[in-house]
Design brief:
Bound molecules: flavin-adenine dinucleotide
Helix content: 25-40%
Number of domains: 3
Order of helices and strands: EHEHEEEHHHHHHEEHEEEEEEEHHH
Distance between the termini: 53 Å
Radius of gyration: 19 Å
Length: about 300
């Protein structure tokens, strides 16, 4: 399949990229890793007359720690770089684990976090971990900038809170509290090169290694038109000692918050069963990691 004709732009500064987006607006598409865009262009789903590569824009591919308070991840950082990054594996584990499960090595080394989030596919790997980490997305245009919380960003399948003249420049995450542990579990028919049938990200904070749960965050993917934060399941956990029975109740509550579909990857019934199992499993993993938190 051949690509349709388009004009290619390769700005070398952020301002030039933003000016181009402002001039060309809806006729242009940003090209990051191209693992979604080029496929959609070949299939004639997207037909932009201009393509703006962000590969030469400095800084978009950087991961910058903020003095122990958090981290800023550039919009064009690859999933591969995220999965291998020491600080992200240490303090922001759900994101590093999810990035390591995206596609296969060749895809991961091209696919960017910005492309994965803007694409807003219900089964994508990176939205749920961003949601449990309370990430903020910085969007810039030629006329200004704004921040959108990860939980507010996803509007529907393929729809996100971003305008055609805006660029997702960074993902900002605060460092979780001490005694926090995280997890990410992806269920697919294969171990690699597979889109999720269900995915779950969880983050648990304990008062102390043997103490009660002081914060709990759960996000689910591939279970509704957008990824879902399971607030009602989280509320059950806060103030309680972690037990299997508690996690089972959280899993059952999680099922009630989802509206999965039947498709070629799995039936609605199977997805519901798996939400319950995977929520429970991901909470157990997160608590074990919280207990072994190191300063
Ligand atoms: C074989 C294969 C396997 C895959 N497996 C998975 C998988 O397991 N899990 C998964 O979640 N996805 C998977 N994908 C989908 C895809 O790889 C990811 O969604 C990827 O992260 C997209 O990033 P990209 O840099 O390639 O985006 P691109 O294709 O470059 O762009 C995607 C969209 O986002 C826009 N965009 C990109 N960056 C920005 C930005 N910074 N600001 C504003 N708009 C932007 C583009 O204009 C385009 O509309 C797979 C794809 C393929 C081809």
């Amino acid at each position: 399949m051949l690509l349709p004709k388009f004009e290619y732009h390769e700005p070398s500064t952020l301002q030039d990229a933003l000016n181009l987006l402002s001039e060309l607006g809806g006729n242009a598409k940003v090209l990051a890793g191209g693992t979604d865009l080029l496929v959609r262009m070949k299939q004639k789903i997207d037909r932009p007359s201009h393509v703006i590569s962000i590969a030469r824009v400095p800084g978009l591919d950087a991961i910058i720690p903020r003095n122990g308070h958090g981290v800023t991840i550039g919009g064009a950082v690859s999933a591969g770089a995220i999965s291998r990054h020491e600080l992200l594996n240490d303090r922001f584990l759900p994101l590093a684990l999810a990035a390591g499960r995206l596609g296969a090595p060749m895809i991961r080394n091209r696919a960017t976090i910005g492309g994965n989030l803007v694409n807003a596919r219900p089964a994508a790997d990176l939205p749920p971990p961003c949601m449990v980490l309370n990430a903020e997305f910085k969007l810039k245009s030629a006329s200004g900038e704004r921040e959108v919380a990860a939980v507010e960003f996803f509007r529907g399948p393929g729809e996100a809170d971003i305008e055609p003249n805006e660029l997702l420049v960074s993902i900002n995450v605060e460092t979780p509290m001490p005694w926090t542990g995280g997890s990410y579990i992806k269920l697919g028919a294969r171990k690699t090169l597979e889109i999720s049938m269900v995915n779950v990200a969880a983050l648990i904070t304990l008062q102390s290694p043997d103490g009660v749960i002081t914060d709990a965050r759960i996000a689910l993917g591939a279970v509704a038109p957008t990824p879902v934060r399971a607030y009602a399941a989280e509320e059950l956990l806060i103030g309680e000692k972690p037990t299997d029975e508690l996690f089972e109740r959280a899993g059952m509550t999680g099922v009630g918050l989802c509206s999965p579909i039947t498709d070629h990857r799995g039936t609605m019934e199977y997805r519901c069963m798996m939400i319950e199992v995977l929520v429970k499993r991901s909470l157990k993993q997160a608590v074990e990691r919280a207990k072994s938190w190191k300063p």
